Amino acid sequence: MNPQIITLIFLVFAIVMFAWEKLPLSITAMIVAIGLSVTGVLTPAEAFSGFVNNNVLLFMGMFIVGAAFFDTGMAQKVGGIVTKFAKTERQLIFAVMLITGLMSGILSNTGTAAVLIPVLIGISAKSGFARSKLMLPLVLAAAMGGNLSLIGAPGNMIAQSALEEIGMSFGFFEYAKVGLPILITGIAYMVLVGYKLLPNHIDSELDKDSVFAKQDDYSDVPQWKQYASLIILVLTVLAMIFEKQIGIQLHVSSWIGALVLVVIGVVSEKKAMKSIDMNTILLFVGSLALAKALEKSGAGEMIADMIINGLGSEPSPFILLFVVLLLSSIMTNFMSNTATTALLVPISLSIANALGADPRAVLMATVIGGSMAYATPIGMPANTMVYGIGGYTFRDYVKVGVPLIVVSLIVSMVLLPIMFPFYP
Predict the structure, then answer these.
(1) What is the phi/psi pair of residue 222, to 5°?
(2) Can you spell out the DSSP letters for 76-125?
(3) What pLDDT was estimated at residue 35?
């Protein structure tokens, strides 16, 4: 069978399975990688090259650095200090969104949400503010904060890997050119207008078996471990920011930080290994295999041509930008934001090549749109985590999230053509 047809079959299979989620995303991704290898579209070396990809190694190192920050209780301490000064509901929403957005810019957004949920449950119980007023702002900020840095979300690294294949890349904080204004605007929107749309559900009693039913006690963790986790996190991020000046690659810096934490005993070897999320790694590897097949077989180019032809013989860059953003933002609300980016990045790259546009501009639009998982409880894991805790309905997410998507699209449409023009 034609490699192009085989690749398209696997692409359709991935889209259906990512949206359906009957199988874990990582398993679907690896089925695609193995299928592309068995059918001869890719060689085994091409299909599984993601396992030695620099960005996969970077994620593994940062999982360990992040685990130390979370497991020592330092993340909870930082979150608790910031929210302590908020006296009114709106002040608390502001504080929660600010600290969550900044933390998820350099740590896992799911991990950040998981750590701060128990903090907010405690604050809600003491203050009398309904949990439903606090949990949605938390996860919305986690989604927006992922676009502050290269390591903020898996989708950012998928785009980076695609660019590296053609000798290009994004700088460490380059996503923040658009991501930071979206976060600032999103917080302002929620504090000034969006809070009125938040539901006011009566708090239900938490299941005693729930991991969020009680706040972990970190009083027995030595303070030196807490401060060491913070210092090494900061130094690791600084090393990544100044990668070119110090001559050490990002993934090497992440592993230096991870190994130092294990060697000095801040995190045990066992915990370090358990902190590496193999679901993310396998999803990443499988998505890179699909991207390689779309490029090698010419299927990506064929899809790109269909999209471009649908927009006319000479599509306006502005309209194309809007289409890419809108498609990404819709898809990401009905399947994992990482899966959305993984599917769209190779197609976006083919669109850029077909039009002679700057690949960085098209991929930036794809990733920014793919992060707008605000309007459903299934767009990202953090959204699902608070669904029961806040007593939310599907409609609650739509009511709060859709206006925020509109706000984010407007900010993106203004900034992207300035910061990342399609034809520089």
Answers:
(1) -55, 140
(2) HHHHHHHHHT--SHHHHHHHHHHHHHHHHTTS-HHHHHHHHHHHHHHHHH
(3) 96
CA distance 232 to 238: 10
User: What is the tens place of the pLDDT at every residue in 281-301?
Assistant: 898 888 889 989 988 998 888
Q: In 10 A of CB 410, how many CB atoms?
A: 12
Supply 353's token pair.
């090549």
Return phi, psi of residue 15, to 5°: -60, -50
Q: C-alpha dihedral over 276, 17, 148, 236, to 10 degrees?
A: 10
DSSP per-residue letters across 19-58: HH-SS-HHHHHHHHHHHHHHTTSS-HHHHTGGGG-HHHHH
Q: HSE (CB half, 13 Å, CA atoms) of 324? A: 33
- Which long-range contacts does 32-39 make (Cβ < 8 Å, 24+ apart)? 32/286, 32/289, 32/290, 33/285, 33/286, 33/289, 33/290, 35/10, 36/6, 36/7, 36/10, 36/289, 36/290, 36/293, 37/289, 39/1, 39/3, 39/6
Q: How far is CA 117 from CA 121, 136, 301, in A?
A: 6, 11, 44
Q: Is the pLDDT of residue 224 over 60?
A: yes
Distance CA 56, CA 109 (A): 17
CB 358 within 8 A of CB 424: yes
Is the pLDDT at 76 greater than 90? The verdict is no
Give just the sign of the alpha carbon dihedral 250, 256, 259, 261: negative
Two tokens, residue 184: 């600032």
Residue 177 has pLDDT above 60, yes or no: yes
Q: Is 177 left (phi over 0), alpha (psi -120 to 50) or beta?
A: alpha
Determine the straight-line distance between the first and last CA of the chain, rounded to whole angstroms.
Answer: 40
